[in-house]
Amino acid sequence: MSVEFGMFAEREIVLGLWSVGGDWGPCDAEEAHALVVGAPGLGVRWVDTAPIYGRGAADRLLARALRELGADAPRVATKVGPRFEGDHPVCDLSPEHVRRDLEASLRRLGVEAVGLVQAHWPCERGTPLRETAEALQALVDEGKAEAWGLCNHGSASLRYGPASMQLPYSMMRRDIEHDGRLRACRHHGVPVLAYETLARGLLGGAYRTLPRLAPTDHRRRDPRFWGARFFHVAQRVALLRQASERWGVPVAALASGWVLARPGVRGVLVGARRLEQLRESVQARRVAGEPPWLATLDRIAASFGASAQASR
Fold it and tell me: Which of 166, 146, 119 is nearest to 12 (CA)?
């Protein structure tokens, strides 16, 4: 079942909750709660979560906000698949696990249905995607989700008719432009929801020197935060900072706005821990509508060259 673009507004800003799940170091629960409760007031209509974000912590935080917001709550996009075997998640997209995973999420969230359920990663247990797609569609037919989508899958997966495709895309991570996935999504009319638009914070403008990351911070394993690679990126971010000062727009909004303006991209996921950060990121909508700014940002994006890609 292919869902029309109307599911997502033009230039959709989606609040991603990975960073408040605890996998990026300690997070203040009250600030995170204020973030989610305040998101609709900034025009944010969707939040994106997943069972493995803090092993359910992001879901539990979101559940509290959903109760408080009631009818004003944003729509929820969640994911199914990864489960922990020891310290490492393994993606199981068998029909049985897909169903268990979503039903467990609904219980944690305290809702009967979500707006979008997505297969988080390609299956690592051998289940054909056709069977996964049928299982996801069955959950939609039962009213447990409005639509289903995919994350991190290849072009061939589009023949099963996902409502959306969530893929990493940023000024410094542009592989979907070159491996055919962005072109294929446009051909099939499947909207791309771009995540990691700030490269896990590297493009947010805050880091001028190597950050001291908490032992629990997922980014400690990301080579882009190591030595020479970090400083290569930092030199380019300095150009974004100059543009930010010239135009009066936050660096984070420039980086996400460039992605939001790319053909085929319907929305961008932005991570935040505090409402002030989200208030900056939503200005990406304005950036995406300024062709002269985008021309400058194109040149800055090209200057990143073959910057290091993050590992999963």
Answer: 166
